[in-house]
Amino acid sequence: MSEPERAPRRYQRRVETSPPNARVALVRAADSWGATFQASGTSSGRLELPVNAGLRQGRLSGTVRFDPAGDATELTFEIEREDYQLPTAAVGLLLSGIVGALPVLLWPFAPRLARIAPFGAVIAVGVWFLVLAKVRYVGAEVFFDRVVDETSEESAERE
After folding, report:
1. What are the average pLDDT values for consecutive 10-residue runs of the chain, which has 159 residues?
2. What secondary structure does DSSP assign to 78-94, as a single string?
3. CB 30 within 8 A of CB 47
């Protein structure tokens, strides 16, 4: 049985500027983000966006459209492909944190573990600070917030 085809995800954002200015703002944001934007015509282009989703790191690829909406522009990013990878070093550290936490949890049932429970606690807390405290989500929403900021800065420069 074949896997059902998923409908592409979409992100839409209204930008209070003309389509050409919105396109310039998107190019600026893409340059500062480390993304690549390839224009195809004046009203669309292809965007490859590096993202972080928790421990996973990856890229979103899709089409961006610049649709006029009165005095503003409606930006639409239609994600066609998502590629994520899980860093094995972080997963290995998390596993060592779990192993370190086991004596802390099990010492009431096995009193011999009480001697190493403090070391287990230190390992578990250390892993927390090394890996889990640095987990963040930086995706398409955050990127398009930056595009909106770029258009705001551009309009402030003109005034």
Report:
1. 58 90 92 92 91 88 93 92 88 89 91 91 89 81 89 65
2. EEEEEEEE--HHHHHHH
3. yes
What is the C-alpha to C-alpha distance for residues 14 and 69, in angstroms, rounded to an integer? 8
Angstrom distances, CA of residue 14 to CA of 35, 146, 149, 152, 154: 20, 13, 12, 12, 16
Alpha-carbon distances, residue 58 vs 131, 138, 140 (angstroms): 17, 10, 12
Query: Please, which contacts does 17-21 make with residues 24 or more away whose CB atoms are closer than 8 Å?
Result: 17/72, 17/73, 17/151, 17/154, 17/155, 18/68, 18/73, 19/43, 19/66, 19/67, 19/68, 19/73, 21/73, 21/151, 21/154
pLDDT (0 to 100) of residue 2: 45
In whole angstroms, what is the distance from residue 56 CA to residue 68 CA?
Answer: 35
> Nearest to residue 36, comparing CAs of 49, 25, 45?
49
DSSP assignment, residue 154? H
Q: From start to end of 5-145, where are the E strands? A: 9-15, 36-39, 44-54, 56-69, 72-85, 136-138
Beta bridge partners of 14: 74
